Amino acid sequence: ETIVNVLDVKKDVGLWHAVQTSVMNMLHIISVPYALMKVNPLSWIQKVCQYKAKVACVKSRDMHWAPVAHRDQRDVNLSSLRMLLVADGSNPWSISSCDTFLNVFQSKGLRSEVRCPCASPEALTVAIRRPAEEGSAPPGRGVLSTQDLSHGVIRIDSEEKLSVLTLQDVGSVMPGALMCTVKAEGLPLLCKADEIGELVVCTVATGTSYHGLPGMTKTMFEVVPASNGGA
């Protein structure tokens, strides 16, 4: 398979999927430097069409500029994509970028279920080599009323109201992994449904310690989440 990457290969999602994934899974990586993206925002889409790439790793900025510049580009066909990995999917502005990109390029073969917003590589929420099931649902979205954000009381509301927040899913937990959200400060208490916290991941794919730093290892790796009742 071929992956088209626009991200920085020295860190985060670009490092995980443009370098390590290619080495470990023998994938063909087409890396598009950001300097070229400034001159031609459609360069990554052109590479997807040219090589019939299955996966593209981009940011919401790349999806924002592409619809503006695509008018001069003919013969665009994105039907080969099975995953469009959006590295900054946790940012609020990525929602409108994803929607606009889909509306413009859906007629060019882009399927809604290929969008895969991702929060961060540390969360290990993306498995590129695990093909999506046929007919799988697109990334989840929910519209929350700002008046009901009270740690557990969430109401699905319509998007037309000005008093709501639109959130989108940032990926699925990898098979065999466990994940929860705990308070970022103090004891690692489990967060409520709409409470901000820190992700805790338990899987064989994550690290187990800091070499030679037992204190930091105990703080970062030996975390036992607990409920407010102490269980």
UniProtKB/TrEMBL annotation:
Originating species: Tetraodon nigroviridis (Spotted green pufferfish)
Official protein name in the record: Uncharacterized protein
Domain of life: Eukaryota
Entry-linked InterPro entries: ANL_N_sf (IPR042099)
Gene3D superfamilies documented for this protein: N-terminal domain of ligase-like (3.40.50.12780)
